[in-house]
Specification:
Blueprint (H helix, E strand, L loop, with lengths): L3 H6 L2 H9 L5 H19 L4 E2 L1 H9 L17 E6 L26 H8 L2 E7 L10 E2 L3 E2 L1 E2 L2 E5 L5 H8 L6 E5 L5 H7 L2 E4 L19 E6 L2 H11 L17 H7 L5 E4 L10 H12 L7 E4 L7 H24 L5 H11 L3 H21 L5 E5 L15 E2 L2 E2 L8 H7 L5 E8 L5 E7 L5 H15 L12
Parallel strand pairs: 2-3, 11-12, 11-13
Antiparallel strand pairs: 1-3, 4-5, 6-7, 8-10, 9-10, 9-16, 13-17, 14-15, 16-17
């Protein structure tokens, strides 16, 4: 029998193949994950809510009646981690907030139910920032640390998910994204995170039904695993008015069918703000390697002017819609950054909202025009490398002072406005040995082509084997 270390180092694709052939059981993988969690959790703090006994009960009875092993993305009993913004029936959902520290979900939300129907077995909840943010710390569970360097941030808000993957605690972990919460932690932890187009992965009742900013999506250690998990997460649901039908060809199969992109546009900063020079150099070098696949790579990007202010406005509006009712009764127990964001949303004028919506519409059309001649837009995922874990957020980049706690996330959140699929792919390490991600953005509703291009570049870069890793100091 393989050791738990050997099982935890398997890719999700290989682990699922063994499960399908009955060469390993869900219980064996669950026990391997439990042993790995015991080894690394005190240092990383990625999975603070664990329900291994409940997961074992599910694993012993797997597969459940009516399960469909022919469903695209069938995970065959693979243990997975679920973000602590999602409901798992009978388990805590705290959102990282003391207000919800004792909140037990009565049922799975739609996102979790879809993953469970696809053969995934939730075993733990991954740590998050309080309500929203891109550095994972909160007053309920504390701080998640980066497995590459425990003194650095794992990013957020899917920081616990990314850290758990990088440390080998689970094979797949779900996440969600408003302004970069799947891509930023993927970049910081040397894994892969995809923000799908709105509607690809169904969302539950806790979010505004017609919102296009917040999406659910997959995180994994490599692109093939990412495609497998996207297949597992993608299923139409009447609970989500944006939900759409699954594609005729699975995302895993699309990896084998998609050819190399022909034309890549690269920008180090999308023409908006300064970024760390080392990050820029690593990402430029990573994007340039598309040339080895026969692609033409050139400096080009759509015009993103006005996008920073537009996102700040639309994000604040959504935060106020979701959390505004809490402010009057729970203000002392809400983080100051979230209080600021709620108040910003509550105080927006009609002119500010209309200006943001017009800016977003114009940006979308400029991006659509760009993709008439380019296959991929590439840029850094994050403007800075992983920062010290004690910092709440970066306050400057290259000597340029930042004004809000989300300014440093601009490279991901302006892309959110476009509704295009976008992923972060590891492209190199800083001189300090910290991961840097290259953000690859595809055409609207172009998940399959984007995953195919990322899969080919991943093979050229040869970095997928860098995780999992033992947490370093």
């Amino acid at each position: 029998m393989a050791s738990h270390q050997e099982l935890c180092r398997l890719s999700a694709t290989d682990a699922v193949a063994l499960l399908r052939r009955r060469q390993v059981s869900p219980i064996e993988l669950l026990d391997a994950a439990a042993a790995r969690i015991e080894e690394v959790e005190p240092r990383v703090n990625a999975l603070p809510i664990r329900f291994l006994d409940a997961a074992r009960d599910v694993a012993k009875r797997f597969p459940p009646p009516g399960a469909d092993p022919n469903r695209p993305g069938w995970l065959a009993g693979l243990p997975i981690a679920v973000k602590d913004y999602n409901d798992v029936g009978g388990q805590l959902t705290t959102f990282g907030s003391p207000i919800f520290a004792d909140n037990v979900a009565t049922a799975d939300d739609i996102t979790v139910a879809t993953m469970r129907a696809s053969g995934g077995i939730p075993i733990a909840k991954s740590n998050v920032p309080e309500f929203a943010g891109a550095h994972t710390f909160n007053p309920v569970w504390g701080t998640t640390r980066n497995p590459w360097n425990l003194g650095r941030s794992a990013g957020g808000s899917s920081g616990g998910a990314a850290a758990a993957l990088a440390a080998g605690e689970v094979w797949l972990a779900n996440g969600s994204c408003l302004g970069g919460s799947l891509r930023i932690p993927a970049s910081f932890c040397g894994v892969v995170g995809l923000r799908p187009s709105p509607g690809v992965v169904p969302r539950g009742r806790g979010l505004p039904a017609f919102d296009h900013l917040w999406v659910e999506g997959p995180m994994a250690r490599n692109v093939q695993d990412l495609a497998l998990f996207l297949d597992a997460q993608s299923f139409p649901s009447a609970q989500d008015p944006l939900s759409r039908a699954i594609p005729g060809v699975s995302y895993v199969e699309a990896l084998r069918q998609t050819g190399a992109p022909k034309r890549i546009g690269f920008s180090p900063d999308l023409g908006l703000m300064r970024i760390d020079p080392e990050v820029a150099a690593l990402c430029r070098a990573g994007a340039a390697r598309f040339a080895e696949l026969g692609a033409e790579v050139e400096e080009a990007a759509p015009d993103f002017s006005g996008a920073i202010d537009a996102f700040q406005t639309l994000r604040a509006l959504m935060i106020a819609e979701v959390h505004g009712a809490l402010l009057a009764r729970e203000r002392p127990r809400i983080a100051p950054e979230i209080v600021w964001n709620i108040e910003k949303g509550l105080n927006l004028t009609t002119d500010e909202i209309l200006r943001a919506q017009r800016c977003r519409a114009a940006l979308y059309h400029r991006v659509a025009d760009f993709f008439e001649t380019f296959d991929i837009l590439a840029c850094p995922t994050v403007a800075v490398p992983p920062f010290p874990v004690e910092q709440r957020w970066p306050t400057e980049i290259g000597g340029e002072k930042l004004t809000t706690y989300i300014d440093w996330m601009f490279l991901t959140f302006v892309v959110t406005l476009t509704a295009c699929p976008a992923l972060s792919l590891p492209c190199g390490l800083t001189r300090d040995g910290l991961p840097v991600g290259l953000q690859l953005i595809g055409r609207p509703r172009g998940e399959a082509a984007l995953l195919g291009a990322a899969h080919l570049l991943e093979q050229v870069l040869g970095l997928a084997g860098d995780v999992p890793r033992d947490p370093g100091t």
